[in-house]
C-alpha cells in the first residue's frame, strides 16, 4: 500500500516538471518571434555601430589621417669635383687658349674636375714643383722634357697642346748674306736650358766656343726684350717668335728669326702637358678626363675661332693687345686637335739627335718620356 502511494507521488512530480518546462518554452518562443519582427529602415532610422568597430574616447581626439606627399624630394647633390693644379710655363698667353676655353665653358666641370691654373714666379720652378708633388701637372716644351728625364726627374708627357715649336732664334738686325758665319760671332741670351744646351752649340761651332773671344751665353730671365734693348746681347736663342719681334719693333729694334728646323733641330712639340711619372697609373682616370675636356675645347675653338678669341679677351682683358691679336691666327693652326695622341717617332728621333750631339749618354725608351693616358 505504501509502495503504491510512493509511485503515485513520483508520477505527479514528473508530470508537474513537464508542465512547467512546456509553459516556459512556449513563453520563450513567443518572445523570440516578437523580437524578430523589426521596424523597416528609413532615412530617419538611427544607425549605431558597435564600439569595437569605431572606438572613441571623450578625452582624446582622433588622429589625423596623413595626406599624400605632393612635394618632390630634394635633388641629389653632385659628387665633389676633383681638384687638379696645373702650373703654366710662363704668363698666361694665347698659347694657353685650350685651357682657358675648357675652364670658361665648364668642360672641366663636366668631367668632374676643378682645374686651377697657376702662374710661376719663375718658369724654372714648375718642373721642380711637379717632381716634388706640389702641383699635379705642368707645362713645358719637348726639348726640356728630354733633358729633365735624363737627369732622373720623374716627368712624363701626357698631352700636346701645340704641335710645333713656339720659340726660335731671334737675332737683332737684318739677315746677312753669310748668316751662319754672322750668327757664330754673336753674344746670345737664353731663358731656359733649351737655349743654352741645344741651340747655342748649333749656332756657335765648337772651334769658336773654345776661343778666348767667345762670349758666354747670358741668362735673360725671361726678359729678352730688355736685354736686347740695353745692348747686352745680340740675339736670344729661345725667344717666343710670336711676341718678341713685335715687342722689339715697338722699341725701334729690327730683328730677324731663325727657325730651329734651319739649324738641323728635329721637329718637336712646342707645348706639352707633363705629369709625375711615379703616379701615372694611379691618376690615369683623372688624366683621361682632363684630356677629354681639352679635346672638346679644341674642337670648339676650331669651329669658332672668332668667338674663341672674344672669349679669351673677355675673361682675361690683359691679353687684349695688338701683339696677341696678331699672333692668335698662327697659334690657332698649330694647336693639337688630338692632344692625347702620341707621335712616338718624334720622341725617338729627338733622343737620337741628343745622342748624336753628345748631350746624352744613352737613349731612353719613349715610354719613359711620353704616354697616351688612354692606353694606360
In short:
This protein is α/β, with parallel strands linked by helices and 376 residues long. Helices cover 42% and strands 14% of the residues.
Detail the topology: elements first, then pairings.
Blueprint (H helix, E strand, L loop, with lengths): L1 H35 L45 E6 L9 H8 L2 H4 L2 E6 L6 H7 L5 E4 L1 H9 L4 E8 L4 E6 L6 H6 L3 E3 L2 H11 L2 H4 L8 E2 L4 H7 L4 E6 L3 H7 L4 E4 L12 E6 L7 H20 L1 H11 L6 H11 L11 H13 L9 H4 L7
Helix pairs in contact: 2-11, 2-12
The overall number of domains is 2
The SSE order reads HEHHEHEHEEHEHHEHEHEEHHHHH
Work out the helicity level: 40-55%
> How do the strands of the widest beta sheet line up side by side?
2-1-3-10-4
**What is the third-level CATH name, the topology of the largest domain?**
D-Maltodextrin-Binding Protein, domain 2
Amino acid at each position: 500500500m505504501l509502495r503504491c502511494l510512493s509511485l503515485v507521488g513520483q508520477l505527479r512530480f514528473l508530470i508537474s516538471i513537464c508542465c512547467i518546462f512546456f509553459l516556459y518554452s512556449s513563453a520563450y518562443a513567443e518572445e523570440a518571434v516578437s523580437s524578430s519582427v523589426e521596424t523597416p529602415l528609413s532615412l530617419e532610422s538611427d544607425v549605431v555601430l558597435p564600439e569595437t568597430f569605431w572606438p572613441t574616447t571623450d578625452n582624446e581626439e582622433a588622429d589625423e589621417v596623413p595626406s599624400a606627399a605632393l612635394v618632390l624630394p630634394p635633388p641629389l647633390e653632385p659628387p665633389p669635383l676633383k681638384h687638379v693644379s696645373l702650373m703654366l710655363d710662363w704668363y698666361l698667353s694665347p698659347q694657353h687658349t685650350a685651357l682657358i676655353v675648357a675652364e670658361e665653358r665648364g668642360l672641366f666641370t663636366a668631367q668632374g674636375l676643378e682645374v686651377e691654373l697657376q702662374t710661376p714666379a719663375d718658369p724654372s720652378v714648375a718642373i721642380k714643383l711637379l717632381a716634388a708633388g706640389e702641383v699635379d701637372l705642368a707645362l713645358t716644351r719637348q726639348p726640356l722634357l728630354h733633358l729633365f728625364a735624363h737627369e732622373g726627374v720623374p716627368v712624363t708627357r701626357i698631352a700636346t697642346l701645340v704641335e710645333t715649336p713656339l720659340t726660335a732664334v731671334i737675332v737683332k738686325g737684318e739677315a746677312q748674306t753669310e748668316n751662319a758665319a754672322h750668327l757664330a760671332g754673336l753674344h746670345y741670351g737664353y731663358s731656359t736650358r733649351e737655349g743654352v744646351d741645344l741651340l747655342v752649340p748649333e749656332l756657335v761651332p765648337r772651334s769658336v766656343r773654345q776661343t778666348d773671344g767667345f762670349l758666354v751665353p747670358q741668362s735673360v730671365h725671361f726678359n729678352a726684350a730688355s736685354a736686347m734693348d740695353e745692348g747686352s746681347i745680340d740675339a736670344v736663342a729661345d725667344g717666343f717668335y710670336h711676341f718678341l719681334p713685335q715687342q722689339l719693333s715697338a722699341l725701334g729694334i729690327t730683328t730677324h728669326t731663325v727657325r730651329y728646323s734651319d739649324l738641323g733641330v728635329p721637329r718637336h712639340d712646342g707645348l706639352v702637358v707633363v705629369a709625375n711619372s711615379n703616379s701615372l697609373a694611379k691618376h690615369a682616370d683623372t688624366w683621361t678626363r682632363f684630356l677629354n675636356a681639352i679635346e672638346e675645347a679644341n674642337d670648339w675653338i676650331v669651329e669658332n675661332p672668332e668667338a674663341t678669341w672674344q672669349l679669351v679677351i673677355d675673361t682675361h682683358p690683359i691679353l687684349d693687345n695688338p701683339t696677341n691679336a696678331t699672333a692668335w691666327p698662327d697659334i690657332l693652326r698649330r694647336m693639337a686637335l688630338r692632344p692625347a695622341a702620341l707621335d712616338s717617332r718624334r720622341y725617338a728621333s729627338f733622343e737620337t739627335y741628343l745622342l748624336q750631339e753628345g748631350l746624352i749618354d744613352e737613349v731612353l725608351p719613349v715610354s719613359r718620356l711620353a704616354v697616351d693616358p688612354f692606353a694606360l
